[in-house]
Specification:
Structural class: mainly alpha
Distance between the termini: 56 Å
Largest sheet: none
Number of strands: 0
Helix content: over 70%
Shape: flat
Number of helices: 4
């Protein structure tokens, strides 16, 4: 397990460095899989398969389970649009937020997509409840 936990930051940085290297050479294709992301996915998969008691119920894991159960389809559908919008917003900028996006863009995309989906689901529920009262 320790080796897999150490592999997470190694493969994450490998994927980021590979992306930057390919961008410099204008060789970054769309919808292609690269070694860093493949090794990162394998490492995460093996970590959760091998970690027998990784799930301890608490408020954080309940919230993550709810997000996965109820919102995963919407997150999957919307994440690409959010990725494109954020990439265009931060392209060529040198602010602290833009540099953070360049390094940790995947987490930004996920967080913004989850917030958008949560707002959508809550607004839809409120409208449904309001229309029933009328």
């Amino acid at each position: 397990m320790g080796l897999l936990l150490c592999g997470l930051p190694v493969f994450w940085n490998m994927a980021v460095m590979e992306q930057k290297w390919l961008e410099k050479r204008n060789a970054l294709g769309t919808q292609e899989e690269y070694a860093g992301t493949i090794f990162l996915a394998i490492c995460i998969f093996l970590l959760f398969i091998g970690w027998q008691n990784f799930y301890v119920e608490n408020s954080l894991t309940r919230a993550l389970a709810k997000v996965g159960k109820d919102y995963s389809m919407l997150i999957y559908v919307l994440h690409y649009a959010v990725l494109q919008a954020l990439s265009r917003c931060f392209k060529g900028r040198r602010s602290l937020l833009a540099m953070g996006y360049q390094q940790y863009g995947m987490m930004f995309v996920f967080a913004v997509t989850v917030v958008m989906v949560a707002v959508y689901v809550n607004a839809r529920a409120c409208l449904k409840n309001h229309s029933r009262k009328l």
